[in-house]
Amino acid sequence: MPNICMIAYSDYNLDARIKSYVRILKKAGHCVDLLVLKDASGKTVESFEGHNLYRLSGKYRGANPFLYVYSYLKFFLIAFFSLNRLDPKKKYTAVHVHNMPNFLVFAAAVQRLRGKRVVLDNHDLMVPLYEAKFNNSGKGFAAGMLRLEQKCSAAFSSAMICADDLQKEYLIREFGIPGDKITVVLNLPHEDIFLRVSVPKEDGVFKLIYHGTIAHRLGIDLMIEAMNRIRGQIPVKLHIYGVGDSLGEVIALRDKYGLEKEVFIAGKAVPTEDLSEIICGMDAGLIANRKTESTDRFMFPVKLLEYVYLGLPVIAPRLTIIKQYFKEDMLFYYNPENVDEIVNNIILLYNNVELAQKKVNKSYGFFNNHNLTGKTSDYLKTLNL
């Protein structure tokens, strides 16, 4: 039975994308070892559905780019030695490396030199994301180093995966990567993880949900502003699940407005397997990404796909990457960062059940064109399996 190794600077319990890949490989008859981040349990080795998790180091969360680099380097070195300790026994057929950072692909340098398949999966584009996260123009030493890191990592890998078509266009245009080296594999919800379940809903209260990273670029504060403006107009409650650099600021803003009853903030991320029940108990999903180079073109919100897949109408900003896949009649669109339009869409949704269902039906049509069967085929071909 072929063995595959995955390397990801990620908490496996919270990453639906990586779990989806693992389930695809398992159904195809392959065994997977995962080199990932430590979690709160403190375990270093554990088994998950017959696969092995090797938890290597902790994750840095903050706004200091130097500490990010240190955390990445530490994980990289441990991953390099762990992979080469395991490989003689496991005899991996391929190594699938998830960014960020891209240079994690060099942890499989020995395997690449031995002719094994090493795939770099670009979940995120580091240069645009760096610009958005640190309010940088994309110029200067740090941005230049990130560009070099992307180019060298791409050249070293056997093949690449990216998350959407605009990412592929960017990688070809900016770095000269051959198009036939890049496969687009959308981050579709896996049918074994995301299940439509029946959940009793709170009578009379319209429940909105956001789950994921809590960061300024993702507009969680705009959601709080909208809830402040809508207070008293309709019975609505916003549920926020996740962690991130801006969590403290979001809690402070909620408390400043006295919205403790209208806005629930979990203050923690939710294991992937628990998301279905939470999402299915809601009335609508809310996306509020600000418009930056990164969010407008290169950050396709995975949570949007999860809401649509589980039958929720979605309020979303008119960003290029979202409009690439969803037409105006599929979502409740608003102009980016326009809080009044967010409020108007919430009220419109609350008062128009038929319109909401019509958009739900239209948006679900996305999965007629992009389905798990196609994702599975593209992914296995990329690994040469």
Write the layout of secondary structure elements.
Blueprint: E1 3-8, H1 16-27, E2 31-36, E3 45-48, E4 51-55, H2 65-90, E5 92-98, H3 109-113, E6 117-122, H4 126-133, H5 141-156, E7 159-162, H6 165-175, E8 182-184, E9 206-211, H7 220-230, E10 236-241, H8 247-257, E11 263-265, H9 275-280, E12 284-286, H10 293-297, H11 302-309, E13 314-317, H12 320-323, E14 332-334, H13 339-351, H14 353-364, H15 366-369, H16 372-382
Parallel strand pairs: 1-2, 1-5, 2-4, 5-6, 6-7, 7-8, 9-10, 9-12, 10-11, 12-13, 13-14
Antiparallel strand pairs: 3-4
Can you tell me about this structure?
The protein is of the alpha/beta class. It has two domains: about 5-190 and about 370-380, 3-Layer(aba) Sandwich (Rossmann fold), CATH 3.40.50.2000; about 205-370, 3-Layer(aba) Sandwich (Rossmann fold). Helix content is about 40%, strand content about 15%. It is built from 16 helices and 14 strands. It is globular.
Short description, anyone?
The chain is an alpha/beta fold and 385 residues long. The protein has 16 helices and 14 strands.
What CATH architecture of the largest domain would you give?
A: 3-Layer(aba) Sandwich
Q: How many individual helices?
A: 16
Tally of distinct domains: 2
Shape summary: globular
Main sheet, how many strands, which sense, barrel? 8 strands, mixed
Examine the coordinates and then state which fold CATH places here, giving the name of the CATH topology of the largest domain.
Answer: Rossmann fold
What's the level 1 CATH class of the largest domain? Alpha Beta
Structural class: alpha/beta
Q: Return Rg in Å.
A: 21 Å
- The residue fraction in helices comes out at 40-55%
The sequence of SSEs as H and E is: EHEEEHEHEHHEHEEHEHEHEHHEHEHHHH
Mean pLDDT level: 91
Relevant CATH superfamily of the largest domain = Glycogen Phosphorylase B
Work out the number of β strands: 14
Q: Tell me the distance between the termini.
A: 12 Å
Uncertain runs are none
Query: How do the strands of the widest beta sheet line up side by side?
Result: 3-4-2-1-5-6-7-8
Proportion in β-strands: 15-25%
